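Marked as duplicate of an earlier ticket. Keeping the data here for the record.
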Amino acid sequence: MRVDDVPLLLKPAFHAYGYGFGTLLDWIETSIRRCCRFERHAVTTRGPRIECIWHENLPAYIAAYLPPSAGQRYVWMNHPIWYMRPIHVLLARRGVEALALGSSGHGGKAALQQVADHVRRGFHTSFAVDGPLGPPRVLKPGALDLALQTGAELVAIRFDYERSVRSPGWDRKHFPALYSGIRVHETVFAVRPDNYAAVQEALPEALG
């Protein structure tokens, strides 16, 4: 069942679940942002950015990059299955203006086209490039294809944690220990037909 196809009778419970857990996740992200020390080595890009991370770094990424700086607008492509509703609520609370519902095997091509349309209008976007279900640290081509299609630059973001707790699950997410340090390193790639394979090879190394 997709988040946009929930039966009417289930919607009250569905929204309570989404907003309840979404609010809790927002509180966790706010705590990470306020209590951890981020040392960010950013790069300058021309126009919109396609920011790339491993799925395991989502908590630190959201804390460090969202809400966006003034003048920045974000569109995200996200898994449409019903249990993802708290994540969609979290993203909306943290300033992601547009959400394209889709992923590999779940309308991903149509959602990617929606993201491309927004990127051409100046929106930034973000990809966990090992996908919504893994396997972990195995690069999927969506972000590179989007860069090739739109001309936007890829920004590979690596996180180095002073201390973190790993969650269970396929991606073993890092949750930074409060009051610890996190170093954030960015590497920029311009994707063209003649260097697509080279960027595809270099990107995982840049992500750490």
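See parent ticket for discussion. The radius of gyration is 17 Å.
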